[in-house]
Specification:
The protein has two domains: 154 residues, Helix Hairpins (Orthogonal Bundle); 116 residues, endopeptidase fold (from Nostoc punctiforme) (Alpha-Beta Complex). 64% of the residues lie in helices and 7% in strands. The chain is built from nine helices and six strands. It has a six-stranded antiparallel sheet with strand order 1-6-2-3-4-5.
């Protein structure tokens, strides 16, 4: 009799067990590979994209720097105002205490002599002395000396209350401005850190290509500067010839020249100062003497010429007479970009001295290196 064999139970859905095991193992392997695979990385930006991004970040950082400069200047002014107000409040409080002390002397005298109405004492406790006067007709019952003391007390109390209110409001404004100062500073630092990170990821070859792109940009800007120089030279020669041919206008020309001579002297001083700063590093928020940002340099240069300019590009662009690019003269301020976030000082022949950007130094460069917004003559 043949040995009894135990029959296997049928596999589900009629599939043989080895097939199921194989499929399961395959699925597990695929899932394991998927789980262990590195997440897909974002495509590496092109060199042109990095250049544009870094340029945008530097511009944004410079805009944030100007906001920082504005907030810093405002903070300095507000702090001086707060200190002045607090000193004033202290002086007025002292005078108020003196007036209160004199009224207290009258109240004590009333008490000692048994005067019928302790009016002076009540006055010292009143929330509004003037209302108290109106209700009690106290002034009719006081001597001239007492009346003067009451007048002094009311005057000092009113003035002190007002100054305390002003000081409180100024302190609140100062706190808000200091907060804005911190925000602008953090914004600058964040954008510069992002730019540095992008540049640090470039290969040696990419850095070399980026330097070549920069040279091409500077060469094109220089070409435009040379064109402007030739045009300005031609215009100047034409004006000299017209002046030589004209007759009977020497007096008028002399008057005009006298005014121009004073402006030229100031511009020369500003330029001499700016040239002496060449090679010093750009540092955002700096206004010298060891480092500068763009508006800090122009402000310091014109200060050396005896002309006070505001701190930020947005205010400097309003501090003078706007002229055309073709009419630009040495010493004029040249502003850049639609948001007026950069400025340089014109030196002639289409060139300027400016503090360019983080990592760079004060240098001469074509005004066509950046898109020009306007040209302003401070003096």
């Amino acid at each position: 009799m043949a040995p009894h064999r135990r029959s296997r139970p049928p596999s589900p859905m009629g599939i043989r067990t080895p097939a199921i095991a194989t499929a399961a193992l395959t699925s597990v392997a695929l899932l394991s590979q998927t789980a262990n695979a590195a997440p897909s990385e974002e495509p590496r930006p092109s060199l042109e994209e990095v250049e544009k991004k870094v340029g945008d970040l530097y511009r944004q950082a410079e805009t944030a720097s100007e906001k920082y400069n504005a907030a810093k200047e405002k903070t300095t002014k507000q702090k001086k105002r707060v200190d002045t107000l607090l000193d004033d409040v202290a002086r007025r409080t002292e005078k108020l205490n003196d007036a209160r002390e004199e009224l207290g002397t009258f109240a004590a005298a009333q008490y000692r002599t048994g005067a019928a109405a302790p009016d002076t004492a009540s006055l010292l406790l009143a929330d509004n002395p003037q209302d108290y006067f109106d209700q009690t007709q106290l002034m009719d019952r006081l001597t001239s000396r007492q009346k003067q003391s009451v007048d002094d007390y009311v005057t000092q109390q009113t003035a002190t209350t007002e100054k305390r209110r002003e000081a409180s409001e100024s302190l609140e404004t100062l706190t808000r401005t200091q907060s804005s100062l911190k925000t602008s500073k953090a914004d600058v630092q964040r954008k510069l850190a992002t730019a540095r990170d992008l540049l640090s990821k470039l290969t040696t070859e990419e850095k070399a290509r980026l330097a070549a792109i920069e040279r091409q940009k500077q060469e094109e800007a220089q070409r435009k500067a040379d064109e402007l120089a030739r045009q300005q030279a031609a215009d100047a020669e034409r004006r000299r010839q017209e002046a030589a041919q004209s007759t009977g206008t020497s007096t008028g020309t002399g008057t005009s020249g006298s005014g121009s001579a004073a402006s030229t002297a100031k511009a020369d001083k500003a330029l001499a100062f700016a040239r002496a700063q060449i090679g010093k590093p750009y540092v955002w928020g700096a206004s010298g003497p060891g480092s500068y940002d763009c508006s800090g340099l122009t402000q310091a240069a014109w200060k050396a010429a005896g002309v006070t300019l505001p701190r930020t590009t947005w205010d400097q662009v309003k501090a003078g007479t706007t002229v055309s690019v073709n009419s630009a003269q040495p010493g004029d301020l040249v502003f850049f970009y639609d948001d007026i976030s950069h400025v340089g000082i014109y030196i002639g022949d289409g060139m300027m001295i400016h503090a360019p950007k983080p990592g760079a130094y004060v240098r001469e460069e074509s005004i066509y290196y950046m898109p020009i917004h306007s040209v302003v003559r401070p003096a």
